[in-house]
Write a structure and sequence with these properties.
The structure holds two protein chains of two kinds. Chain A has no helices and eleven strands. By secondary structure, chain A is mostly beta strands. In chain A, strands 2, 4, 5, 6, 9, 10 and 11 form a seven-stranded mixed beta sheet that branches. Chain A has a four-stranded antiparallel beta sheet with strand order 1-3-8-7, with no helix packed on it. In chain B, a hairpin with a 5-residue loop joins strand 4 and strand 5. Chain B is globular and about 40 Å long. The chains are: A mainly beta, B mainly beta.
Chain lengths: ~120, ~120
């Protein structure tokens, strides 16, 4: 049981390049999330998927797209990378169901450290 | 006013001491409260939920004060391994705080360093 896995662990891009960050969970969770973490800013939600087949914007979605490929996988795409997207990206998952009051623990992946030059 | 505020620290504490830090939240409709722990260059992990009556897990005690809108974390007999950043997390039921599915809002964290 690997939990939440992310690839790659590190990436350096040039401005304007594109890339996809991959995330997979093996806990049969319904909800998945993409966050970015910047010094002094804390964790900010980029996009989330409340259940398979649905995605929605979070706090800072501009410049990103996502795909919930199936229940296990949730990818984040940068179409045209900018230096402002230099950050650590975390994927997370939880058992949460849309509209459910109970707050389940969010399990995070190890992160992807992205630098855009 | 920021939704969830924490003193960033660092708190430098000798091993064996007791340390406490608070987190304030601005939305009085906040429903659920948590402390997550994040080690340097690692992912956040749930440390404990915070219940209205307060709760304890070993050396860790969490308290909630709804009237003053803050939660606290107390660590007794601190260990070197407690050195980490502690994230305060708040959920507002039915509100997509920051657009989030669960309405989770993360504080920026309090950095704790336990010194030998």
């Amino acid at each position: 049981n690997a939990g939440v896995t992310q690839t790659p662990k590190f990436q350096v891009l040039k401005t304007g390049q594109s890339m996809t960050l991959q995330c997979a969970q093996d806990m049969n969770h319904n909800s998945m999330y993409w966050y970015r973490q910047d010094p002094g800013m804390g964790l900010r939600l980029i996009y989330y998927s409340a259940s398979e087949g649905t995605t929605d914007k979070g706090e800072v979605p501009n410049g990103y797209n996502v795909s919930r490929l199936n229940k296990r996988e949730f990818s984040l795409r940068l179409e045209s990378a900018a230096p402002s997207q230099t950050s650590v990206y975390f994927c997370a998952s939880s058992e949460a169901h849309p509209g459910q009051a109970i707050q389940y623990e969010q399990y995070f992946g190890p992160g992807t450290r992205l630098t855009v030059t | 006013r920021k939704e969830v505020e924490q003193d960033p620290g660092p708190f430098n504490v000798p091993e064996g001491a007791t340390v406490a830090f608070n987190c304030t939240y601005s939305n009085s409709a906040s429903q659920s409260f948590f402390w997550y722990r994040q080690d340097c260059r690692k992912e956040p992990k749930l440390l404990m939920s915070v219940y209205s009556s307060g709760n304890e897990d070993g050396r860790f005690t969490a308290q909630l004060n709804r009237a003053s809108q803050y939660i606290s974390l107390l660590i007794r007999d601190s260990k070197l391994s407690d050195s980490a950043t502690y994230l305060c997390v708040v959920k507002v039921l039915g509100v997509r705080s920051g657009g989030g599915a669960d309405g989770l809002t993360f504080g920026k964290g309090t950095h704790l360093i336990i010194q030998p």
